[in-house]
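My main concern about presentation is that the manuscript never shows what a single data entry looks like. In essence, backbone conformation is discretised, so a fold becomes a row of integers matching the chain in length. An entry of this sort, consisting of the sequence and the corresponding backbone structure tokens, reads as follows:
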Amino acid sequence: MSSPIKSLYLKPTKEKKGMSTGMIILIITIVVLFLLLLVGIIILVLWLVGVFSPKKSSSNISSSAPPPQFCVNDSNCSSGLKCCNNLCIDTNIDPNNCGLCGTSCSINEECCNGSCIDISSDSNNCGGCEVSCSSNEECCDGSCIDTTSNSSNCGSCGVACSTNEECCNGSCTDTTSDSNNCGNCGTACSSDEVCCSASCVNTKFDINNCGGCGITCSGGDICCFGSCSPICVI
């Protein structure tokens, strides 16, 4: 049996104290927030220096006009520009100040050399300023069209030929029956031929077109000078 006096001097066992779960979560949270803040600062700096800013294409940069220059009168503007509403404007191309300050072009017009032009029908400015059509073309809906052969614009803009017609020299022509344009524009039949179903035939001797297109000889008859006959005496 142990002595009661010795038991009084036994040192109590110390419990090992570790880091609590709450403290660990708090530290992790602080670290995550710090990292997020750091990433945010880096992104902001990169944005300010233009790394993430949208890049303009070279075509947009080259085609975009410089910002208008402020002015009081024409003397403040560069050569060729006029002062319109305190801005230097090129009145040769500006649709809101075409030729003169305050002269506006309509929706279907463009300002070409100081004049409002309907580019959908102007042969000298077809589809755009200074786009000229050739001598055999017309400007139809902003495109240069050869109206001598275009079936949708035959002879003039908007004149459409029917399904069995072709545009020949500016006229809608039925090439299945026209002897001057048989089968195709410009294909002419000879003086003793007729155009039948887009082919030049001699109706005097053709058994399928005897005397006229579509008249067929039957029963062994032959076509003799435009008439169906058992024999033909020449």
User: Anything to note?
Assistant: Residues 202-234 form one domain. The two ends are 162 Å apart (CA to CA).
